[in-house]
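Quick start: what a row looks like.
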Amino acid sequence: MKSLSPTIHCASSGAAAAPRAGTTYHTIAVEGLKIFYREAGPKDGPVLLLLHGYPSSSRMFEPLFAHLSERYRLIAPDYPGFGYSDAPPADRFDYTFAHLAQIVDAFTQALGLREYALYLQDYGGPIGFRLAQAHPERVAALVIQNAVIHEAGLSAVWEKRRAYWAQRADHEPAMRSALLSEAAGIARHVGGREPLEAFNPDAWMDEIAFLRRPEQAAIQLDLAYDYQSNVAAYPAWQGYLREHRPPVLVTWGRHDPIFTLDGAHAIANEAPGAELHLLEAGHFALEDRGAEIAGLINDFLLRRAPGFVRGTVAAERVNILD
C-alpha cells in the first residue's frame, strides 16, 4: 500500500523543457468589473488557474508561462484592485477575501472552466481555498507555494497585523507606512540573503509604485484588516484537505520572512500523500526557481493527476455537470 505521509524534498535541479507558446492578454466583464487576465497554451489543454499574491499580479506567473504553456492552458487573473483589473475605491467596493473569491469564481464561470489545478501563492491561498470549498468537484490538484492555512505558518511579522486587527484606528498609520516600506519589499523578495546587489530592485520598486497609486492604500488596508477572516477559516480549509484529498504539491521558498517552514510542513502533514519541496528561494519563489517549479508541477501532475492531464477526467465531469 502506498504511504500517505508527505514526501519531502530539498531543492533540486529539475526543470521543464517545453518551449513557450504565445501569451495573450485579455479583459472580461465580471459582475460589472473589468478583470484582466493572461492566458497561454492550448484551448483544450488541462487548465492551471494561477492565483497571485500581495502586492503582485498575474505578472508573477510569467516564469510558468515560459515553461508550461505547450501542454497546459494557463490562466492568471488580476483580482479587483490589483494589476490591470478595475480598482473601484474602497468606499464603493467591499475589499474582503470572500468577495475577491466570489469575483474569481464568477470569472471561472464566465470562461467556462469546468476543471482546473489551482496554483495558490500568498493571497491566492485564501481566495483559492474558498473556491475549492465551493466547487471541490472542479479541483484536480493543488499547488501551494508560500501560502498558509495554519497559524503555525505565520511568522513574527504577523504580530503587527494582529495588533491592527485588535485596534484598527490606533495601528492604521503604522500599517499604512509599512505598505510603502522599501525594507518590507526587499524582505519579501530577498529574505535576508546576501549580497543584496544580486537581486533586481525592479521587483520591489515596481510593487511600491503600484501601492502608491490613488486609492491603493485604502484598498490594501481593508484587505490587511480582513485577513483575520482567513485565520478564522484555517480549520475549515484543513478539513477540506482531509475530506476531499486532492493531490497536493507544496513548493516553498525557505527564505520567506512572512510564512514559516512550519506552515509548509503543516500543509504537507494535513494533506494525505502531499509532496513538499523546500527551495532556495524567497516569498516569491518563481522569481528564483521558476523553471524548477514548472518542472515539479509537470512531473507531479503527470504522476498524480494523469487523467486530468489527458483530459479524460474533464470530459467525464462535463457530462456529469451538463
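That is the whole record. Residues 245 and 272 are 6 Å apart (CA to CA). Residues 216-244 form the longest helix (29 residues).
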